[in-house]
Model the fold of this input.
Amino acid sequence: MNLQNLKIALQRSGRLSEGSIELLKKCDIRFDDGVGKLKSTAQNFPIEIFSLRDDDIPRYVEDGVADVGIVGENILAEHGCAVEVVEKLGFGKCRLSVAIPKNHDYASIDDLGGKRIATSYPRVLGRYLEGRGIAAEIHTISGSVEIAPSIGLADAVCDLVGSGSTLFTNGLRETETVMTSEAVLISRKNLDGELRQLVDKLLFRIKAVNAARQNRYILLNAPNERLNKITELLPGIKSPTVMPLAETGWSSVHSVINERDFWDVVERLKDAGAEGILVLSIEQMINGCAGRGGVL
Ligand code: ATP
Ligand code: MG
Done:
């Protein structure tokens, strides 16, 4: 019986909200995520969910208002809060890039010298330029950075990029990647006792969910004389399961394969004589390691 609830801060509405809520739900934490709800308590796990603006999350965690939070690495790099990064979460992937009007010449980063660069990430950009010996004028604005060159406010921008379509629509092209970012689970420093145990419990579930996401369960039929070749292609968690089919001379092979080399492996399995290949997604993977590149 827990006396304390773990308090977790998530982005209220924005690009990380859906991924954060989905992750907790996949961890089988049930709570009401109704629109506009600022706080809710899970029904089946001692956790309270706070919905906040993403910029405020590191500070709330540092100050102990929340114990843990989910936020982009870009925000942490800019705000420099004293929190612990517990785990990379694999969603909310983007990069912080410098972009210039697409018809402007650009040979190297030296071309940014003396230029005005608009950004919401003055500290990260400042460090990046300083590290490369470039003196530019950083113009801090809080939003709609991408329009700064077209209204004459800046010569270049430094902004978050996902697909690059916003830059493209605004006539900009990417020239430098300042940092890459993804969502991470952060925690207050020196959490101990019951709260530390709750973070560990949550982390155990998150790892199982993320490992499952990166792997697929595969079933196939194989003629017995091809089994050696086929099982060589399927490392599995330990090794593939091989069971005889009702039809003599055939076996069913079950295994786990990494999403990264999925198509490549499937093609090689077909070439090696596999038939009736079925691929299923995995809900959770506990304490396993899917052959090459396993995660847990
Ligand atoms: P808030 O109102 O909470 O302050 P926001 O407008 O500052 O929200 P969003 O645009 O929702 O923030 O982005 C939240 C986070 O999502 C970013 O800080 C970044 O880590 C991540 N992200 C992922 N892809 C992108 C992208 N293409 N553009 C911007 N941010 C992205
Ligand atoms: Mg924000």
Notes: Residues 289-296 have pLDDT under 50 and may be disordered.
